[in-house]
Amino acid sequence: MPFTGRTNIAVISSFHTMQSDLPSFISSLMPSIQTVLIDLADRSYPIEIGAALLGSADIYVGLPAAAAALIVTNTTVAPLYADALRAALAPKYAQVHLVALPDGEEHKNWQTLNLIFDALLQHGCDRKTVLFALGGGVIGDMTGFAAASYMRGVPFVQVPTTLLAQVDSSVGGKTAINHPLGKNMIGAFYQPQLVVCDLATLDTLPARELSAGLAEVIKYGPIADMDFMGWLEDHMDDLLARDRAALAHAVRRSCEIKAWVVGQDEREAGLRAILNFGHTFGHAIEAGMGYGAWLHGEGVGAGMVMAAELSRRLGLVDEAFVARLKVLVQRAGLPLRGAVLDAADNAGRYLELMRVDKKAEAGEIRFVLIDGPGRACVRAAPDALVREVIDACCAG
Ligand SMILES: NC(=O)c1ccc[n+]([C@@H]2O[C@H](COP(=O)([O-])OP(=O)(O)OC[C@H]3O[C@@H](n4cnc5c(N)ncnc54)[C@H](O)[C@@H]3O)[C@@H](O)[C@H]2O)c1
Ligand SMILES: [Zn+2]
């Protein structure tokens, strides 16, 4: 059944986090670590959030024992962080192998996935081998899928190094590669054993990628937590300056909200679709412009404005709410207006692309809308109204 109800802000707001109870003399020396639990019965796991975590051997102590570990990363991230991770894993695993894949969304495919299987087989890795995904969402999604299928499933750990991956893609167990005919079309639900969000890795992230990650942070406010939206309004400058405390709060609150949603609906039977706020319009922009022209988060930025405007035209939110969201999106360094995908019939092109969205049912587009600030719903809207929104919201 599609989700047609409303999110319950009271429940989400009361979701608990655990502060790690390090002895005070250690916590005075070490950066504080915060833990968010993903509660999925026997597939539950912690998300550890803090600075300079990935090089700390203690973080990995509780992982399953194995003879070997394989670090899967890419040619951009490997020179930055692979040595630190390798050193931290050495006390636990007798052999720590590494495969560095080519960098880019265009490599999220079968051919590159096979490089992971090649490495596993060439090193004689058995079914206990633990995979470590060190990188952004592309590496996380591919490594997760490799872990789901190598010898019918081996354990894996997410070590996300982009803001987008720390607040979204590393959490929740969606893994996939792209097919030439569609993004993320081949994949599996497969949960990691552990997620290690090392905030220090964000220091080397290009500014454009930081902004793209902020789109996924911003989305959690309108759909679930207006207090968080207010906090983002107060702290956007700190986030752009990569202030550690601000990043820690943004990552933790985003993970808490995602944890709550995934805990209710692991396999997206309904509620989980609200995490796609801004994504129906955003995916159309990404696909219509050709993948890579707009970053995913940039499409989501403009897409959230379009979805909010559609919500307003349906009488669900007022103009002031849309204006607030626009200011936040703009301050994050994200585009406010959608791209023109077709000079002759722009709205028609958007509609055509949105009908192949994974949420569409029998050709009917299902939009994630804001049903009053802090609440989301998923529903259809009349084409004529959607056309008006596209005409009003696209650069031209
Ligand atoms: N599984 C999910 O639930 C989910 C959710 C959202 C997005 N995704 C997927 O995530 C992918 C996008 O992820 P992304 O935005 O992280 O992109 P990405 O993985 O392509 O990383 C962006 C760029 O930053 C580089 N990079 C990564 N960490 C760095 C660091 N610390 N310093 C310097 N450079 C660094 C990467 O090499 C890459 O060039 C898409 O494929 C999308 O489909 C999945
Ligand atoms: Zn997204």
In DSSP terms, counting alpha (H) and pi (I) runs of 4 or more, how many helices? 14
**Any idea what the CATH architecture of the largest domain is?**
3-Layer(aba) Sandwich
Order of helices and strands: HEHEEEHEHEHEHEEEHHHHHHHEEH
Q: Give the CA-based shape.
A: globular
Distance between the termini: 38 Å
Broad structural category: alpha/beta
Count of individual beta strands: 12
Q: Name the strands of the widest sheet in spatial order.
A: 1-2-3-10-7-6-4-5
- The rounded Rg comes to 21 Å
Low-confidence stretches: 1-5, 8-30
Descriptive report:
With 396 residues, the protein is α/β, with parallel strands linked by helices. It has two domains: 6-205, 3-Layer(aba) Sandwich (Rossmann fold), CATH 3.40.50.1970; 271-393, Dehydroquinate synthase-like, alpha domain. The chain contains 14 helices and twelve strands. It has helices spanning 9-13, 24-29, 78-89, 110-122, 137-149, 163-169, 207-224, 226-240, 244-264, 279-289, 296-313, 319-331, 346-354, 383-393; strands at 18-19, 34-38, 45-50, 68-74, 95-101, 130-135, 156-160, 174-179, 182-189, 194-198, 367-370, 376-379. Strands 1-2-3-10-7-6-4-5 form an eight-stranded mixed sheet, sandwiched between helices. Strands 8-9 form a two-stranded antiparallel ribbon. It has a two-stranded antiparallel sheet with strand order 11-12. Helix 7 (207-224) packs antiparallel against helix 8 (226-240) and helix 13 crosses helix 14. The radius of gyration is 21 Å and the shape is globular. It starts with 8 loop residues before the first helix and ends with a helix. The model is unreliable at 1-5 and 8-30 (pLDDT under 50). The chain binds nicotinamide-adenine-dinucleotide and zinc ion. Zinc ion (ZN) is lined by residues 168, 216, 279, 296, 300.
